[in-house]
Design goal:
Pfam families: NusG. Strands 1, 2, 5, 6 and 9 form a five-stranded antiparallel sheet that branches. The model has no long low-confidence stretch (mean pLDDT 87). The chain starts with a strand and ends with a strand. It folds into two domains: 107 residues, 2-Layer Sandwich (Alpha-Beta Plaits), CATH 3.30.70.940; 47 residues, SH3 type barrels, CATH 2.30.30. By secondary structure, it is of the alpha+beta class.
């Protein structure tokens, strides 16, 4: 009987692992999402794996050996609990397939902030102050508009210290 398993792959070799596993009759799946990245000063839509370095594999261990899956090019090993590979529940895979590249998932990955959205600063000298999200400033920082002495001023803040109001 076929079961889903989670494989850990070499860095950036999920596609290679998937191709080689499919040649052996193993079904593979890894969710892809589209995220906005700032590259050379421009926002670009980029597709990335939701779980970097991980691939879900669907096969019957009586037809395909664990050792042949584990020794497939691009695969490092199974995710295990003790000596046994962990089986992944079918409902989890179905839920991931449904959620893949949904607007809700994309917003979570992009910190979910839209220009003009009210936010609160969570740390630093402006902790607790409310601001307006203006735009991203690279992958790790954002530009916020904060009112100081009745004048809006731009402030660059680490994304970890910004929360939606």
């Amino acid at each position: 009987m076929k079961h889903w398993y989670l494989l850990y792959c070499k860095r950036a070799e999920q596609q290679r692992a998937e191709q080689n596993l499919k040649r052996q009759g193993v079904d593979c799946y890894y969710p892809i999402v589209t995220v906005e990245k700032l590259r050379r000063g421009k926002c670009q839509q980029v597709e990335e794996p939701l779980f970097p370095n991980y691939v879900f594999a669907h096969f019957d261990p009586e037809e395909v050996q664990y050792t042949s899956v584990r020794s497939t090019r691009g695969v490092v090993d199974f995710v295990r609990q003790g000596a046994h590979p962990i089986r992944v529940d079918q409902s989890l895979i179905q839920q991931l397939m449904i959620m893949e590249d949904s607007d809700e998932q994309r917003d979570k990955l992009n910190d979910g902030f839209k220009p003009g959205q009210a936010v609160t600063i969570q740390a630093g000298q402006f902790e607790g102050a409310e601001a307006i999200f203006k735009e991203k400033d690279g992958e790790m920082r954002s530009i916020l508009l904060i009112k100081i002495l009745n004048k809006q001023t731009e402030l660059r803040v680490d994304n970890r210290h910004v929360r939606a109001v």
